[in-house]
Predict the 3D structure of the following.
Amino acid sequence: MNEAFFHGYLTFIVFAFGACWGSFLNVCIWRIPREESVVHPRSHCPKCNTLIAWFDNIPLVSYLALNARCRHCGTHISARYFIVELLTAILFTLIWIKYGISLLTPIYWLLAFGLIMGTFIDCDHLIIPDRVTFGAWVAGLLLSPLVPELHDQQTVWGGLRSALIGLAVGGGLLYAVSLIGRLIFRKDAMGLGDVKLLGGLGALLGWQAVLFIVMAASFLGSFVGLYLIIRRGRRWRSRIPFGPYLGLAAGVWVLGGKELWLAYLRWLAGGMF
Ligand SMILES: [Zn+2]
């Protein structure tokens, strides 16, 4: 077996592995905000309640094979399920291609898993579950000393220190913004869930990531917000979930934004001296 073929085979395995986690994410996104167990009972059709057989529950494949319908009652199955599985598979594959065989790969897979969950739950319910936000705090504080490479550090203490600084900058920065927002608009412009999430992202990715994520997410958020107001007639003050933009920006950071940001800072520094 030549090397290119073997690498392609591994990449395919990672894609399928990601699709399986995407399938589980669909369960989590539906059940966690409803405080139902994610393992029990087994998946069933929401309309006719028939248990879904294993061969009708194969990620991506079954949706296409069944033409987006329940085998028993013919009820239409939302494209959302397919999209979440495909998105998870693609993100897992991109992380694998970028980081390869390293401890960073499974950590970023975990991060992608949490962010997809937080994003879709935030879109549906305008909340980000503590399982995602505090989960990121715990993951950041626990994993950073063990894998200091997360913060480009070499020592246990260096990793832990970077995680703590990231947590403080992430949580503190957005909390300050939300306080200012409350003073200006006399209303909660931003949920506490966003503050907690950004703290977690800081703990996992460091304070520089926090600055990038806040800037990129605000830019994306105001762009989409303006579009919705102009084209769809949404009111200015309607609450728009911010979590998805934070998640998207974090994804951009992990998949290459970091290198761009550091190159930009070097360019700025070069211009100044
Ligand atoms: Zn059915």
Observations:
- Residues 45, 47-48, 50, 70, 72-73, 75 surround zinc ion (CB under 6 Å).
- Residues 156-185 form the longest helix (30 residues).
- The mean pLDDT is 90.
